[in-house]
Write a structure and sequence with these properties.
Largest sheet: 2 strands, antiparallel
Order of helices and strands: HHEEHHHHHHHHHHHH
Distance between the termini: 63 Å
Structural class: mainly alpha
């Protein structure tokens, strides 16, 4: 009997070994070849975008980093200066000041529109089906479809000495407050920040509103049954639910503040004095007016590093546990 069992088991073991032998090896090879074909097709689809990105983004960045170590006017022979261009940024107030102005603009370009957009979206959501909500969305989003150059020109007229803002202040009896808002050292940067906040508000409102539409209404009903008020609902349900949209808004607006150029160039060109000068505008002046291409490249590299140093932790924080 024992010999018979061994005889019956032996072929079964042989068949199992056959399954893990040449046959399964062939299947593995076929599966690997199929994955390689799929990966090759994916690479072919990605290749045009990757090539364009390498040519128009990575290549200019590499050249900018290279130029930042030279003293070069863009025409004649360059001279190696090492880290002198970067050292000058940290020691020269005319070069370091614009970076501080950019951080100050974050308050106006980012924190103000994100806060107001969050409140506006929470308010509009309560009567989303009414015509008032539709009009409010259109009016608040309208600045997004206006070119920044046109917005800068329009606000330059509004904030001029005889502009609509000063005329309104005189009508209501506040003529002593009027001034050239974009020409005063104390108010030029906040005035530019007001323009940036006006432009960004609509985008923040739409993103927040899109996030709020995904919230389950049952959560609000449960909160009301527990006696929660509107403020409690906002901080306990609405705000945590739009965390990702909040992160997108902060990222976009912070980058807009740090890399601002259009609005400031049109409205103040960095004046009065250098009170509204920002890195983007300073880079433009250094490269094309003062012919200091190496110094402009160094400031551009510093600006890129500043943007990454601010945005990457911000994204990490807003993603929270989901990261």
């Amino acid at each position: 009997m024992a010999e018979l069992q061994q005889t019956l088991v032996a072929p079964a073991r042989g068949r199992a070994g056959a399954d893990t032998g040449p046959g399964q090896t062939a299947r593995r090879r076929a599966s690997r070849a199929r994955r390689l074909r799929q990966g090759g097709a994916a690479l072919l689809l990605v290749a045009p975008a990757a090539i364009a990105y390498a040519v128009f983004v990575l290549r200019p960045i590499s050249y900018t980093i290279q130029y930042s170590f030279y003293d070069w006017n863009g025409v004649t022979e360059s001279t190696w200066v090492g880290l002198q261009n970067y050292a000058r940024i940290l020691t020269d107030p005319e070069l370091f000041g614009p970076i501080l102005h950019a951080f100050e603009l974050i308050v106006y370009f980012s924190l103000v529109p994100v806060s107001l957009g969050l409140v506006a979206a929470a308010t509009i959501r309560k009567f989303a089906a009414s015509r008032v909500a539709v009009v409010a969305r259109v009016v608040l989003f309208l600045p997004q479809v206006i070119p920044l150059v046109a917005a800068g020109i329009m606000w330059t007229w509004l904030l001029s000495t005889d502009g609509v803002v000063n005329q309104f202040l005189r009508i209501i009896g506040l003529g002593s407050v009027t001034r050239a808002w974009l020409g005063d050292f104390d108010t030029a940067l906040p005035a530019v920040g007001l323009i940036g906040a006006w432009v960004s508000l609509g985008l923040c409102m739409v993103l927040m509103l899109a996030g709020m539409t995904k919230i389950d209404p049952a959560l609000y009903e449960a909160a009301r049954l527990d006696g929660a008020g509107a403020v409690r609902e906002f901080f306990a349900i609405t705000l945590p639910s739009v965390r990702q949209e909040l992160g997108v808004c902060l990222t976009v607006t912070v980058i807009s503040a740090l890399a601002s150029f259009d609005i400031i160039y049109i409205s103040t060109q960095g004046g009065p004095g250098n009170s509204t000068l920002v890195p983007g505008l300073e880079i433009y002046y250094l490269a094309f007016f003062e012919r200091e291409v190496g110094q402009a490249s160094a400031l551009a590299v510093v600006l890129m590093l500043v943007v990454l140093a601010v945005v990457l932790p911000l994204q990490r924080i807003t993603r929270g546990r989901e990261s």
